[in-house]
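User: I'm writing a short report section on ligand binding and want a predicted complex to refer to. Could you take this sequence and adenosine monophosphate and write out the structure as tokens? A short remark afterwards would be nice.
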Amino acid sequence: MRGLMMDRPLLISSLIQYAAEYHGDTEIVTRTVEGPIHRYTYADAHARAKRLANALVRLGIGMSDRVATIGWNTYRHFELYYGISGIGAVMHTLNPRLFPDQLRYMVNHAEDKLVFLDLTFVPLAEKMAPLWPTVKHYIVLTDRAHMPPTALPNVLCYEELLAAEEAAFAWPLFDENTASSLCYTSGTTGNPKGSMYTHRSTVLHSMAACTANAIGLSVEDCVLPIVPMFHVNAWGTPYSAAFAGAKQVLPGTKLDGASICELIENEGVTIGLGVPTVWLGCLQYLEQTGKKLDTMKRVLSGGSAVPISMIKAFAEKHGVEFLQGWGMTEMSPLGTVSRLKHKHRLLDKDSQHAVRARQGIPICLVDCKVVSFDGKIAPHDGETRGELHVRGPWIVAGYYKDEPATKAALDSEGWFKTGDVVVIDPEGYVQIVDRSKDVIKSGGEWISSIDVENAVMAHPDVAEAAVIGLPHPKWDERPLLIVVKKPGREPQGSELLDFLSNKLAKWQLPDEVVFVAEIPHGGTGKILKTRLREMFREHRLPTA
Ligand code: AMP
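Assistant: Sure. The structure tokens for the complex follow:
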């Protein structure tokens, strides 16, 4: 027997309609690309998203057409999220930090018809335009006064485009499984692969993100997504913030510690979302200035492992609950969050920090299994390692127009293979040991590069650290520790190894420490281990 409930489709347009109707005077504050702070409300955003919808239709965009954006976190980019998906077209956020060859591939593969871009990216688009034959118009996200002289073909000014339209538009109803947005991930080899989200997956992910077990975003909050709107939709914040009716603060181009902390203080930010390097910048700024974060309740950090020293500094110096999340572009992205359970309130502070330093408990509806290297399902014993496979309603069922990549990504039961090596402990917390390709195989044992990096990051003289495996005649591979010193500090390699000696087993200790001015990062802020391996290809360990 079927139940008797209304079958209303889960559509992205419902989120902005709700926010505009019931949180119409709640603010969205932007540090604009042009410079000044811009403020308006959900009601204003909704009206402009409807103008945009009319403009898109006038430009010939219809259901399922792909429309690209290259933009920072700003109110105009927020409007694009709703205007494009709202009419049933597909919002394709391009990551400008990727290589030109990848950008060429993505726009051609997606067959994007329009490109909306911030002023910053005009030179990039000018270079790419001859290689993007499907693009009919380039729309610069600014007003007439700030329009740059440009060689871009068929260029339009965003504010003029909107001004020419009515703010009346009826969002269409369609199947909730309609494609809504597209994000490509760049592997280290091969072409980028597209995750094609649906309206349904996006709305469900927003609801999950708002739950108290995940980000816990509510009407009481002011959220600062520092994670870019061009990378996994800023972890879904443009959607979940509207779902919650939360105030939003969008940082534009300035992501340094001083600029971020200024926004937190001036706007009363309660929740921040970003990768660990961004929070490191904030901590350094706060250390230098002696300032405090008075309004901030919670940070969700993810994208790469969070050192426990960072969790401790935020909690003990600033009273901020510093949580770690794990996820992937292919998972919209939220998979796990390192929430403390009720029983953990009795633990001492250090033990609580240790719980938050794990990647966290899966959010309900994200199913996880660990497949060990002999192909068996690993028990949740906190010790048996294996690759994490996942399934759930906001996880990809395949890659957009890419059969071979889809085949390689799914196991025989249709679960998505994450490529992350993990253990799950008896309490249900997932802990990432490594990316399967970064783990160091030493004499039949495995060394987790993440464990070593986390341990050394607790040293007061270390700004950043990365560990890679180098060939070794006896042990197969041994770890090399690569360190960036904090400004004005002069740690010695031997000192760092001493520091690590009571935190790691002897065989896990790096064979050598080298200091560099900078560690290379990829387009999404992650340490580029492939680049480091290239840089140190000729390097011989003293033990080898
Ligand atoms: P992306 O699709 O670019 O967001 O990258 C996803 C990958 O980032 C995951 O497969 C992990 O390898 C890594 N990652 C994300 N969150 C974390 C975390 N909290 N700790 C360690 N690695 C993470």
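A remark for your report: Residues 42-58 form the longest helix (17 residues). Residues 185, 232, 302-305, 324-329, 333, 359, 418-420, 432, 435, 524 surround adenosine monophosphate (CB under 6 Å).
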